[in-house]
Amino acid sequence: MPEESDASGTAEATRAAEAVRSGDGTSAVAGEGRALTVGVTMLAYTVGVLSVLVGALLAVAGLTGQVFSAWKSAGPLSPALVGAAMAGVAPGLFGVGRARVWEEVRTLVLPLAVVLVGLFAVSLLNAGRLQAAAGGPVVLVLFSLGWVAVLGVLAVCALAALVRQYLKPARPPAARRAPLPGWSKPFLAVLGSAWFGIGTGLLVEPRFWADFVPWAVNRPDAQALGVWGAALGVGVLGALAEDDLTRTRPALLALPGIALALAVVLGVRASEVDWSSGGALSLVTMVAGLLVAGTVGHRLLARGPAPRP
To answer: CA–CA separation, 285 vs 98, rounded Å?
Structure first.
């Protein structure tokens, strides 16, 4: 009996020693990946709060037919869709704080960095069309100035947080607990490639690819939509590369939210969309794909093996 007690105490001490606490207050279990830094968590929470506030403002304004945007937009639909995507991703961002290691959140945080840096770059590249430069109502002028300033700060913070995250000591990641079913991989590959390809096209060659958007857009509209498309593609393809549903929990929260928010905006402003075009059919299919991926992923994860405590 004393020997068993000693062995038990040694095992507990070993497990306790494996819980590694870093200088910035984050913790992880040895052998289970790279510890999640406080910087990444704080970035996610901050962007989540701003996304709810600003995204709701853009979406509601667009739903009522008002053009509320940091730049001169061709119509209310594009800013409303950008706002809907911002509001829809917020639940996933708030879920980042429940993760322990980087591997559990990178399918959402890396696309987040793409959005922040991309939208900031689009704003600078189209500086002449910003409300503050082109001249507009005072409210929109002030909003455009705040948009650029806040995006610039968040983009720098995102890059700094990623650098800090990858400087953390890396340990072998935990074994995959809920691998993706084989039938889902071709679906995710097509969905992710579609979003990434179209998004990149709108971002790099907006003049050409804007013709495939089934409503009126100008250059900054097309590029802003392209940033979000590319980010969604990065997230979906990242989940495919992870091949583990337990490593995509925050992203699984974001996908249905984004899909539903986009569907509401498209439904309310349906009169502005050329539904007979191939672009409209593609968009509906891709948005439905996000909803299916998120919903089915949740159900599969609920039925799969639970993660270790």
So the answer is: 32
Give the torsion through C-alpha atoms of 95, 101, 107, 113, to 10 deg: 80
Backbone angles phi, psi at 20, to 5 degrees: -100, 125
Instruction: Return the axis-axis angle of helices 219-242 and 184-204, rounded to nearest 10°.
Output: 150
In the predicted model, is pLDDT for residue 20 greater than 50?
A: no
pLDDT at 305: 54
> Which pair of tokens denotes residue 165?
């995250």
d(CA 289, CA 284) in angstroms, rounded, equals 8
State the chain's mean pLDDT as an integer: 88
Q: From residue 7, give the alpha-carbon distance in Å to each of 3, 4, 12, 15, 17.
A: 6, 5, 9, 12, 15
Displacement of CA 170 from its chain's centroid (Å): 24
Per-residue burial over 51-82, b = 16 or more CB atoms within 10 Å of its CB, e = otherwise: bbebbbbbbbbbbeeebbbbbbbbbbbbbbbb
Mention every residue, 6+ apart, whose C-beta is less than 8 A from residue 243: 176, 179, 180
Q: How confident is the model at residue 52 (pLDDT cuts 50, 70, 90)?
A: very high
